[in-house]
Amino acid sequence: MAGPLHGLMITELAGLGPAPFCGMVLADLGATVIRLARAGGSGLFGEEHHDVLDRGKQSVIVDLKQSDGRDIVLRAAARSAALIEGFRPGVTERLGVGPAECLARNPSLVYGRMTGWGQEGPLAGRAGHDIDYIALSGALHAIGPSERPVPPLNLVADFGGGGMLLAVGVLAAIIHARATGEGQVVDAAMVDGSALLTASHHGLLADGWWVPERETNLLDGAAPFYTTYRTSDGGHVAVGALEPQFFAALLEGLGLEVDQVGAQGDREAWPEMRRLFAERFGSRTRDAWAEHFAGTDACVAPVLSLVEAPADPHNRHRGTFVEIEGVVQPGPAPRFQRTRTDIPSPPEPAGASTDSVLATLGFSPDEIGKLRAAGAVA
Question: Which pTM was predicted?
Answer without folding.
Answer: 0.94
